[in-house]
Amino acid sequence: MNRATPRLRALAALPFVLALAVHLLLFARWRDELPAELATHYSLGDGGEADGWTGRAGYVLISTALIAGLAAAWTALVRRRALWGAWATAGFTGGLLVQLLRNNLVDEFEVQISEPVVDLAVAGTAAVAAALAGWALTSLVPEEEPAVRSGAPDGPRLALGASEVAGWSRSTGSRTLTVLAVLALAATPVVLLVLSWPDALFGLLGLVIGVPGLALARVRVTVDRHGLTVRSGVFPKPRVRIPLDEVAGADARDVHALAEFGGWGYRVRAHRTGVVLRSGEALVVRRDGGREFAVTVPDAETAAALLNTLAERHGKV
After folding, report:
1. pLDDT in tens, the chain (317 residues)
2. How far is CA 78 from the centre of its chain?
3. Domain that residue 74 falls in
4. Residue 149 included in any domain
5. Are 133 and 222 part of one and the same domain?
6. Which SS3 state, helix, strand or coil, does residue 286 take?
7. Does residue 10 lie within any of the structural domains?
8. Where are the transmembrane segments (predicted)?
């Protein structure tokens, strides 16, 4: 399995380390000029006037946790071709935090004002510059070539007579993903009713998270004469199908959701994709060209044996 190399992970973490260092150095340098309570939220409807404040210690803890969390996520999920995205994220986040500090460099009795257009322009410029740096550094990470397989499908077989037909199907799901999706969807109308415009737009994030989450919280996995089909157990789509003529081999093995796929749900990684609802037993299909597709499902060994038999019968030899 292809995983992010230590060098790639280090390069993905580097921009966040730099952003955190610059932010904390500026905070230390401007500390005496900053008020005891920093303005950390501004109303878009009142000319950008501050309407939310955070103490210095709390601000440092929250901003540090934000950068550290983004760094951890990018370090775990990064791929070579997306390294620039890690740098862009760090540049944008660091730029916004620096602008927030600058907006607080006023007398504590003055009304603090934010100019969103200016702040976003500065953060966007920092993101573009950082993205270009990340793109340039991509050359330091060698690209791994997928191993190309040919010949008959390898792995277990299911004994079938020449005239026998067979199919296999299992339903599997994740209670955790179901609960999170339902909570996200339930929170959407609450946020839309409680928050005023345009902050209420954040409530739409519940739909962005909840609908795909609910669609993949339970799936039906089928192996038959059409190949492998994985479809949502709730909605008609999404659906993934691998026809028999694309199967180079299948087997059953344990997978680690976070370490190998960077999380749960429909995952896309270098040279492999998957529908991963938990860690544990999974059906792993090797496709022509070397890419892998994995789906976590019980009785994966039977599914792999049948898929290999059907693919071999289909004319893979």
Report:
1. 445 578 888 899 999 999 999 999 999 998 888 888 887 766 655 555 666 678 888 888 988 999 999 998 888 878 888 889 999 999 999 998 998 888 888 655 454 555 667 778 888 999 999 999 999 988 888 765 444 444 445 667 777 766 677 889 999 888 887 888 888 778 777 766 666 555 556 667 677 777 887 888 889 999 998 899 999 887 877 788 999 988 988 999 999 887 788 778 888 877 788 899 888 899 999 988 778 999 999 999 999 999 998 888 876 43
2. 9
3. 6-140
4. no
5. no
6. strand
7. yes
8. 57-77, 84-101, 121-141, 177-195, 201-221
Backbone angles phi, psi at 120, to 5 degrees: -70, -35
Q: Tally the domains of the chain.
A: 2
Q: Which residues pair with 242 in a beta bridge?
A: 228
Q: Measure Cα distances from 200 to 58, 128, 262 in Å.
A: 25, 28, 30
76: left (phi over 0), alpha (psi -120 to 50) or beta: alpha
CA–CA distances in Å: residue 85 to residues 75, 128, 137 = 11, 10, 12
Judging by beta carbons within 10 Å of its beta carbon (0-12, 13-18, 19+), is residue 268 exposed, middle or buried?
exposed
CATH code for the domain in which residue 253 is found: 2.30.29.30
- C-alpha–C-alpha distance, residues 216 and 239, integer Å: 10
Residue 5 makes CB contacts below 8 A (sequence gap 6+) with 141
Report the candidate in 183, 172, 270, 148 with the shortest Cα–Cα distance to residue 221: 172
Beta-strand ranges (E) seen in the chain are 37-42, 50-55, 168-173, 218-224, 227-232, 239-242, 247-255, 265-269, 272-276, 280-287, 292-296
Task: Return the amino acid letter for 126.
Answer: A
Q: Answer yes or no: do 28 and 114 share one domain.
A: yes
Asked if 126 and 22 sit in the same domain, the reply is yes
Is 227 part of a structural domain of the chain?
Answer: yes
Is residue 95 assigned to a domain?
yes
